[in-house]
Amino acid sequence: MRRFLAPLAAMMLGLFATPLLARDLTVVAGGGALQDHMRATLFSTFANGPVVDTAYDYNVGPIRAMVQARNVTWDVVMVEAPDLVRGCEDGIFERIDWSVVNRDKFMPGGATTCGAGAIGWGVSVFYDEARHPTGPANFVEFWDTQRFPGRRSLRRGARMTLEIALMGDGVPAAEVYKVLATPAGQQRAFAALDRLRPNLTFWTGGQQPIELVNSGEVAYAVAFVGRVANGIRAGQRYALRWPTLLYAYDSWAVVRGSANAAAGMQLIEHITNPAPLLALTRLWPINPVNQAVADDPDVRARNPLMMTNHQAGGLEIDTEFWLEHGPDLEQRFAAWLNR
Amino acid sequence: MRRTNWLAALLIAPLLLLILGSFLVPVGLTLFRAVQDREVAQALPETSAILAAWDGQGLPPEAAFAAVARELGAALEARRIGDVAQRMNFARTGMRSTLLRTARAAERLRAPYAASLVALDARWGQAETWLLLRSAGGPVTSLYLLRAMDFTQTPDGGVVQAPTDERLYRTLFLRTFGISLLVTAICVLLAYPVAYTIARLRAPWSSIALTLVLIPFWSSVLVRTTAWFVLLQREGPVNGALLGMGLLEAPAQVIGTRIAVVLALVHVLLPFAILPMHSVMTRLDATYLRAAASLGANGMQRFLRVWLPLSLPGVLAGGAMVFLLAVGMYTAPALVGGDRDQMVAWFIANFLNRDVNWGMAAALSAYLLAMTGAIVALARILTGGMVGARG
After folding, report:
1. B267-281: per-residue pLDDT in tens?
2. Deepest of B53, B198, B292, B330, by most Cβ within 10 A of its Cβ?
3. What is the CATH number of domain A121-247+313-338?
4. Test the A interface: residue of B84, B90, B96, B225 with most A CBs within 10 Å
5. Contact assignment for B171 to A331 by CB distance below 8 Å
6. What's the ipTM?
7. Membrane-spanning residues where (chain B) (predicted)?
8. Contact A77, A28 (CB under 8 A)
9. A50: which DSSP letter?
10. Residue span of the structural domain in which B258 resides
């Protein structure tokens, strides 16, 4: 009997002890093929212990609940700029330890209190040249249904869509946020959307605009440039209109109260370094926030479809504007959509 | 007898505690968030106290200006400012930048604060700003409950309708209940003959038929809804077949319409209507039908006056089940519906996960819960007479 009891007791103890054991360093990003490549080049090359990675849908509600419940199971998270700023103000993310992470390697604005720049992303007008030999080259032409007949697709949501609507109405990119901050400018944006609405289809998931254009359901769409670029690399005849680019940067942040915060900082230092990032650029046209990698002529020449090569004429999405006007404009957009 | 009662109570106590602890208390706490208002009082306790004592005429005393500058600076330092900034910005767009600007400048500001704050941001010179801060002092607020019904509060406390271009939620509630009732009606009409047929089948066939009803549960709702998306799209198999047979001249646009939403919901929820009906019908005593026949009732009369009233509890249970589930669905409308087909649940999820505005999420949930409860209760009362008549 005793022969059975001892292992059984040990097993029971083991069951109870498991939660007390150290959890593997957990990094959370947006999933998909990009995360597979990041696992291969960034996470697996981290020297200080194993890294587990998991995907999330960029919803920060669960992170907030995790911190409030003091049961933090994620350590390093890739977050969008507005979520980073608000999470930092609320103490949802740790302050980055800039003695561990080298702050000088980032592009301007890439190193903030709670975030270290990860990668850039953007949206632009694209269409299938196999179906349409020519298409709109800017947003004014995107709005011109006489010259370019056919359905258009934009993202369902106020962010990016209202900027695009103003540019479609002829507002220069540099003045978009100044105009959109005024009630008259907001009216103007919604009026522009009203005009295009008979020809508009809205998408929600990032792959949808690609499928809408592939199936001919819409003629011209605004989509994530990374996905369009991958389509082109896979042989699709997409025309990607870079002058219509709107872009932003995601950042790496450490969840507050993480038991692995120190290791998290070391991981962030590692995955923002040139060597692993250069390996990643061979697999995916990322837009690094590491200045040396972004400036690397070899990387740029090898990836003509990299956003970094085209972002000069684009509009950077204004984080502070959307933190302030987001709740109001998103509701008005939803109300407009339902009218 | 008393002793057995006591014993019975003891036996069900664990279950009661479980329901209380894992269901009633969390739901109650969540609903309480719809009225809870503690962000300002927590981050700016002294300012709140001074404003509570202020008569609301003109501008508040210098002490309020001094307190708000100091406490905002401290909140920024302690990283507690995000919540209060979001709370005030929700009450009035633009307050976020005012509060953050003040917090960042707090160390540089000098007395008299009434002058230096106004110089920094003109909003501090407006009585409205201070009235807003005072009304957010807690402990409870009607802000979220009003907003969730498209009302808004004026600075002096009056309640007015939100501007036309901001009204949203009343439409959403009406649509949610409209779609849910339609789906419930279709499910009940489709499920009744199926449940009847299965209940009348002989031994091996009835279990086989029941298994077929249950098979869709093996895949997730998301998969089943996505399947509809694949089937119904412009170049999908349904359009392809109809075009091929010459029934259509151009592909029909079904995805992005109300029809697609209703179709997907009916498909997902149909088993929930069949199962309760089936379980009631299998327990019905067939001798009643024979008795009715022996008394001269024809087939129609036997169905209408015996079978239908007896099976009504199952219809009611199945209908209520489908309705309750339909009200809370948001994956199907989001996937196959169009811009005018979104339901309340989608907005609740969005406020919870994306905007992290738990007050709005709780307020919308509270209304949804109350209205759904009222509709189910009404259905019980209206059909109560019929169901009770069998006794």
Report:
1. 999 999 999 999 999
2. B198
3. 3.40.190.10
4. B96
5. no
6. 0.82
7. 172-196, 208-232, 252-275, 310-336, 356-382
8. yes
9. -
10. 169-388
